[in-house]
Design a protein that fits this description.
37% of the residues lie in helices and 16% in strands. It has 195 residues and is an alpha/beta fold. It has a six-stranded mixed beta sheet with strand order 5-4-3-6-7-8, with helices on both faces. The chain has a two-stranded antiparallel ribbon with strand order 1-2. The longest helix has 18 residues. The radius of gyration is 32 Å and the shape is elongated. The termini are far apart.
Length: 195
């Protein structure tokens, strides 16, 4: 009987715990500190806006004729393109008296656009429409309109701008008027007449 030869293991070393191992006490303390810091920074302070008293679920009880319609630059230019009369077409759409309102920001935007939009500017300067003064800095009309609608839910927003429509849809109880198929179309107005 021969004996089985045992081979020697070369470079066999005991396993040593590394300096960054999570099992060491100093690293456990560091991990706890980091998790505390993360939890403090992750805490999101949520601000829930006050719900308007004029809202009955999604239905806005403050919207009654005569309707106040906030007009955007885009809406005016589409009205000119489709050769529509502003006030009469609005009244045909809503079957009620309308008060078109143009803010200073919209006027400034139209003036900036130059000669291409001169007819829209002439329509906007009409004495029949109501003008609203803007107290903020800058002339970005979309922010102005959204801010005004959030504060006072007594307006219908007239626009053809996709981004502005998306922003206004997030605000409950605010209808949107736009130009489509050669007439004005209203969305999210519960009393609106059927097409």
């Amino acid at each position: 009987m021969s004996r089985i030869k045992k081979t020697r293991k070369f470079a066999a070393v005991k396993r040593v715990i590394g300096q960054r191992d999570a099992r060491l006490k100093k690293n456990q303390n560091k991990g706890e500190d980091e998790s505390k810091r993360k939890s403090k920074s992750d805490e999101v302070v949520r601000e829930i806006p006050q719900v308007s008293s004029s809202l009955f679920f999604q239905y806005n009880t403050a919207l009654v004729p005569p309707y106040n319609v906030l007009i955007d630059t885009n809406f005016l230019s589409h009205t000119v393109q489709h050769k529509l009369e502003l006030l009469s077409t609005m009244m045909d759409c809503l079957y009620a008296k309308c008060i078109p309102i143009i803010t200073d920001c919209v006027m400034a935007e139209l003036e900036k656009l130059g000669s291409k939009y001169r007819i829209a500017l002439r329509i906007a300067r009409d004495e029949r429409w109501e003008r609203l003064k803007c107290s903020h800095k800058g002339v970005y009309a979309d922010d102005c309109l959204v801010d005004r609608v959030q504060k006072h839910k007594i307006y219908i927003v007239a626009t053809n701008d996709r981004d502005l429509k998306r922003r206004v849809r997030k605000i409950p109880g605010v209808p949107i008027m736009s130009v489509a198929r050669g007439k004005y179309v209203i969305e999210r107005l519960p009393d609106a007449p059927e097409k």
